[in-house]
Write a structure and sequence with these properties.
By secondary structure, the chain is an alpha/beta fold. The chain folds into two domains: 144 residues, Quinone Oxidoreductase, Chain A, domain 1 (Alpha-Beta Complex), CATH 3.90.180; 140 residues, 3-Layer(aba) Sandwich (Rossmann fold), CATH 3.40.50.720. Helices cover 29% and strands 28% of the residues. It is built from nine helices and 15 strands. Strands 3, 4, 5, 6, 7, 14 and 15 form a seven-stranded mixed beta sheet that branches. A six-stranded parallel beta sheet has the order 10-9-8-11-12-13, sandwiched between helices. The protein has a two-stranded antiparallel sheet with strand order 1-2. The protein starts with a strand and ends with a strand. The mean pLDDT is 95.
Amino acid sequence: MSAQFQAYQIGKSDSGQRCSLTQLEDDDLMAGDVTVRVEYTTLNYKDGLALTGRSPIIRKFPLIPGIDFSGTVIESSHADFGEGDAVILNGFGVGEDHSGGYAQRARVSGDWLVPVPEGLDMRSAMAIGTAGYTAMLSVLALEDHGIGPDDGDLLVTGAVGGVGSIAVAVLGKLGYRVVATTGRMQEREFLLGLGATEVLERAEFAEKARPLGKERWRGAIDVAGGNTLANVLSQLSRSGAVAVCGLAESMSLPTTVAPFILRGVTAYGIDSVMAPLARRKLAWQRLAADLDLDLLDELCFDLDFHDLPQAAEDILDGKIRGRAVIKVP
């Protein structure tokens, strides 16, 4: 007899998309060679879009949302994983076209899984989640560009959000001088406590960018896109770089080629969804080593599984600070 479990499931009809908490069976899970008992999940901006239907994130219906989870393997035919293994999943279309983490069980390809690294547990892995993993991929891109802690200021936009807050915390611990931007200046002390040395008002970057501005940043991590990213590009110093990992402001990029051909700047696109396995493992190992776990506790809060629908609205409306950790009941 197929085991039963609880899950949020999103369906679609002529009247639109609808999300409901329902009872499913193992037979309802999608194809995969590893079945996981989901222990923890989290809430990302993309999850908010999926749950609310504000953007067409879900590409198959019906589908269980949730783009990441941590849990325990309960059944596997994959060579790298066996019963009892603690695993993490981020990306690979999970929560978009393959059922994801907002359920007590998930079935996925073992090729998509990463072992929980030494130094982290399943809860801390989801306190980090896709947002923190994306932040570390961004840090790695700047390091690979050759930017070190003594090379100049690094800018982190949208610093109160999940990606930004962990980027600030990691860069601060690594010894970089971090300048953070936010639209919520009441969070200034919070950002300074994470490791920022200066906090700027987001509105400073909201206006149309000049082709070239004053050289201010050796590097940057941008979650916004739009005019914010255009201004960041125009203000990068010669041979500087920006890790581009979000579109919280806009998907557009109203800029010119001037920063690229007159200052030789580089924009690195951060693809957290389909990043190669070796890069994923490195990112998670570095998070275990370079993120202060006591600080991580200050970054996260517990969110009840049953409060996910309202929290999805809140994250899109900019009402959530830091990282939501959800214990799957």
